[in-house]
């Protein structure tokens, strides 16, 4: 197996853990749709602290504020496929922050 660096893109979606879409966690629906679209992979991370437009800090350090914690969904794939995913799922992504960045992925290729 030959390993090499491959150009790809990273789609980063920032939202709150209690953001919902049709009564389900929005991050879950994003991952489900990414899988259904055949994208290479998606992961979800829960933050320990953050703030948004309101500038109100949400943190796990204070029990009464341990809600609305930040969540990050990361999807890696080809740039064109990620752009198409965002356009196709605009209804799901309309109220969250979406960023697309170039990345290099260390990939294994069989010969």
From TrEMBL:
- Which Pfam family is an annotated match for this chain, by its short name? DUF190
Which SUPFAM superfamilies does this entry report, sorted A to Z?
GlnB-like
Report the InterPro entries cross-referenced here: N-reg_PII-like_a/b (IPR011322), N-reg_PII/ATP_PRibTrfase_C (IPR015867), UPF0166 (IPR003793)
Family to which this protein belongs? Belongs to the UPF0166 family.
Protein's UniProt name: DUF190 domain-containing protein
